[in-house]
Batch of 2 targets.
Target 1
Amino acid sequence: MLEDISAVFRSLEARDFRGLTGIEVGMKYHEWVPVEEVSRYTKIDEGELYYVLKNLGHRGLLKRQTQPYEGYRLYFEGYDLLALNALVKRGSLAAIGDELGVGKESVVYEGLREMVGGLGQQPVIIKFHREGRTSFKQVKRTREHLEGVQHFSWIYAARLAAKREFDVLQRLYPEVSVPEPVDHNRNVVVMAIAEGGELSKTKVLDPEWYLDTILEQMRLAYAMGVVHGDLSEFNIFVSDERVTLIDWPQYLEVEHNRAGELLERDVGNVLAFFKRKYGLEKDVEGVVGEIMG
Ligand SMILES: Nc1ncnc2c1ncn2[C@@H]1O[C@H](COP(=O)(O)OP(=O)(O)O)[C@@H](O)[C@H]1O
Ligand SMILES: [Mg+2]
């Protein structure tokens, strides 16, 4: 990730974003976009374009090859900036803050957005999806949402994951306790910050209440047709008041033939954690049955 994404973001000019967009467009058709095509897409002549691309390269936003022809492709960071630019332009994002963490398949930043009606600024989470970083085979094996995809690129995988996550948050919020979705663009999702901290790192005083509340949220999601599919103490936030289930891109429809298996795994993860840390015991089969109603 960039050392300071907000500093890089602020320092880019309109023509830099045009350069990045030109390569993005070309990547639909080329692994390495020929420089002539970047020039054609951006309407920047090759002389000026040379400096634009060189600058973007120095900033770690794109990669250049010279053999067998001069061509360019974006790094994730270049794609991130295109998404940020779009989100800022349409008012979904006002500022980028510190990096909160690097997950398995994402990089997460704090941010701010302007609330409508001059109500001030609201802290938000900016989640940069990174799904295509692993090889396609690996991704395809573990990620049901890529089934049937012929033309693959990491851009496609990360963008699809962001869209899936945003869509399911919109579907579940507010009936299920998930972060309020704000907006998404390309591989980026903007959402509200979950209250409290990760269950894995928090010592709760009333573990029965938290376990019951988590299972109740899973039941509600199931009743709305959705199984999380990657639930564990790392994807559950807890505060004094509530639990919030995060990290949804791999969710499954309850009709999916693996939904039962993954629900059982989710329940198993949660129960194993409460048993290990708090000595609470519940039977997986029984709980799965309650969730499925
Ligand atoms: N809405 C949120 N509120 C607070 N923290 C979040 C939120 N979304 C993500 N995070 C933080 O970022 C980490 C990675 O995000 P997550 O959605 O779990 O993606 P990954 O697939 O990379 O695990 C989380 O473990 C959590 O610490
Ligand atoms: Mg996670």
Note: The radius of gyration is 21 Å.
Target 2
Amino acid sequence: MKWITTNGCMVHQIIKGRSNSYLVMDNNISILVDTGMEKSRKELIEKLDDFLGEKRLSYLVLTHAHYDHVGNAATVKKRYDTKIIIQKKELEYLREGASQVPSGTNFITHILVALAGRISKFSEYEKVQADFLVDDEYILSPNCYLMHTPGHTDGSMSLIVDGEVALVGDAMFGVFNWSVFPPFADDVPTMIKSWRKLLKTGCHSFLPGHGTKNSRELLKKQYDKYKKRYMD
Ligand SMILES: [Zn+2]
């Protein structure tokens, strides 16, 4: 899959399946968003080599420090000699190679979390050092900026491409075509506020860490539904 914005930014979906990874090209700046799980390393590297050719990878943006998004962060940093960017509240996890298991938002995921414990062996990954930390917003390239969109985790963030396409990590899920609500979130009301922030960017497409694109219409519908339940 590929998206092209008015100002010529390109968003390629590099890997999909259990976790998505996207490569954004803005002029000569290349930005990889998330790296998937360790087991998709070979596929990730092959695709990245293909897409980049002689170009270098300018940045690796991590939407949050969960093992299924940062499983290959250390490898990518080494292989492409790139800079890692993460929101400051996620820094400690990345440094330790640990994921904090977030709270379940439904009956089943609630029980899963209770069984797994908050820090589980299964969610470890190769630790790595970040190079830049984001607070609230950070302009990354002529047409792209990062925005703090907490809720799924404290330090979750999104990349806004040309005010048209948002790469949102797990602030939303794209697994069901009637819902964007993720099965795990630490702070649901905060996540709903982040949806409002994301709607304000004007983007028409919201690309999640899992599943496929969410439309602005679906997000707006879900925001209107859940803000009543969690924010009023
Ligand atoms: Zn996550």
Note: The mean pLDDT is 93.
